[in-house]
Amino acid sequence: MRIVFMGTPDFAVPCLKALVDAGHDVAAVFSQPDKPVGRKQIITPPPVKQTALEYGIPVYQPQRVKDSDTADIIRSLSADLNVVVAYGKILPKEVLESAKYGSVNVHASLLPKYRGAAPIQWAVLNGDKESGVTVMQMDEGLDTGDMLNVVTTPIGEDETSAELFDRLSEIGAKALIDTIDMIAAGTAVRTPQPQGDFGYARMLTKADCAIDFTQPADAVHNKVRGLQTWPVALASLNGKRIKIHKTIHVDFPCAAKAGEVVCSDKRLIVCCGDGNCLEILELQPEGKKRMSASAYLAGNPIKTGTLFEGVD
Question: What is the DSSP letter of 10?
Answer without folding.
Answer: G
